[in-house]
Structure formats: structure tokens, C-alpha cells
Amino acid sequence: MRQRIAVISDIHSNLEALEAVLAEIDRLGCQEIICLGDLVGYGPDPEASVDLVMERCGVVLRGNHDDALFRPVLDFNPIARNAINYTRKIMKPGLVRAGRKAKRWEFLRHLPLQQLRGDWLLVHASPNDPLKEYLLKTDLLFCRDKIAEALERTPRLAFVGHTHFPGVFDEKLRFHEPRDLRDGQYRFGDGKAIINVGSVGQPRDKDPRACFVTVEADGARFHRVEYDFTAVQQKILASGPFDEFSAARLARGE
What is the pLDDT of residue 190? Predict the structure, then answer.
């Protein structure tokens, strides 16, 4: 049996989406799950989401929203900043009898920025900057050097998230969207590639279904999974710091 690995990213405290993705990963018979970060932020269920990732994922990296729990949030937009402040208030352990809270908090605090596995580079954002740099399709028009530099820093394959927009940058400086790939599969060749696995909890490619990737020896396949985003919307609207946009965007995939 060939090894099949699932790679997920950008859960953003969306428990319903995470549970649906994990159920599909189990159905597909994956032997390992890798998480590229951003477990928290934007969504209403940070603790339960972190617990599931701790339980199910063999590799977990630090995303910029995870990192923001432990520093002043100065570079986030108001929506993201409010969500992090809400998450920190819920998750930060007290001085005594912290128990499970302390375990989660220390887990997030010590997440690594990257992992090199043979000729795979695993990062949240970009080979140029593992935590914050966005690699966007539009960069091929306006900032090609950034994509070229990221590919130069890629051993053979890099797996990233961060933009919430799935697809593949290849060595010829092209971007392949999943809908343009046969059966959603990108077959590996001799050249380098950067594979954005999309977002579990907040897709932004106009498709509201949760997104993740499975990887085998010859290629990577993009998967979409439906989940009950209306339940998440109701939780968001019932939580004080969130606004209507944070809920509405889930239905629109943005």
C-alpha cells in the first residue's frame, strides 16, 4: 500500500470544518496528517480545534495567528485583531490549576516555524518568510521575483497555506488552480513546485467547502469537503467580538 499523507492548514477555530475534513481523511486511509498552522483566529471554537489537532496531527507548524497569541497584535486588520483578542481571553491559562489550558497554551507557544523532510519544505506562509509572506497568484503579474525567490529556496516541493487560496506554483512561474487540474491532481515532475493546500476553516477562493491536500509519491490531490457552515455562523454571531462579515464570508468562500 502506498503511503498517503494529508496536509491541512488554516483551520481558524472552525471546529465543524475540521471535523468534516478529518472524517474525509480517515475515509481516504491517510497514514499521517500534517498541519501547516493557523489553528486559531476568526472562528468560535479555538480550544476544541486545538485539541483535535493535538490529537490527530503528527506535525504541526506555527501560523501567524497562532504566533499572535503571544505578542501585541499591531499588524492585523480589526476583524483579525478582535478574533485574536477573543481567542487569547479564552485560551490563556490562569495562575493556578490551569490543567488542559496550560497544555494547549504551551503547545501553541512552542510550535516550530518549519520542517524539512527530505526534499519537502513545510511552512505556513512562504519559503522566503515561513510566518508572514503571502504568495499570491497576482504576484506572477506584479511581483514575479518574489515567486522566483521562493522557488529557489524550495528543495523540490514546498507545502504552504496562509493565503487560503489553493493551487500550485511551478518552476515555469505558472499558477495551477485545482479546477484546472484533472481530477484535482497535480503530478510531480522533475521541477520544483510550491503547493498551497488551501484552508480548512475559511476558504477564500469563492468555494465555501473546506479544502485540504493528500500527497502520494507521484503527486498531490486537492479535496473539497462540505460542512455545516451555518452552525459556525450562528456561533460567530452569538460571540461578542465578531461581526456579521465574519459569519457571512463562510457562505461565500471569501
Answer: 86
CA dist., res. 30 & res. 7, Å (int): 10
User: What's the rounded Cα separation, in Å, for the pair 208 and 252?
Assistant: 6
Is there a contact between 38 and 63 (Cβ–Cβ < 8 Å)? yes
Class of domain 5-114+183-188+197-252: alpha beta
Q: Residue 113 has which C-alpha cell? A: 516555524
Question: What is the number of H-type helices and E-type strands within the chain?
Answer: 9, 12
C-alpha cell, 147: 515567486
d(CA 235, CA 231): 6
- Residues 246, 254: Cα–Cα separation, whole Å: 10
Consecutive sets of 10 residues in the chain, 254 residues long: mean pLDDT of each?
Answer: 89 98 98 98 96 98 98 90 93 80 96 97 98 97 97 98 98 96 93 98 97 96 98 91 89 96
What is the C-alpha separation between 89 and 69, in angstroms, rounded? 10
* H helix runs in 74-212, sequence order: 78-91, 100-109, 139-142, 144-152
Q: Are 9 and 225 in contact (CB under 8 A)?
A: no
Edge-to-edge strand ranges of the sheet holding 167-170: 114-117, 120-123, 157-160, 193-196, 167-170, 175-176
Domains in the chain: boundaries: 5-114+183-188+197-252
> Are 148 and 185 contacting, i.e. CB atoms less than 8 angstroms apart?
no
pTM score, whole prediction: 0.96
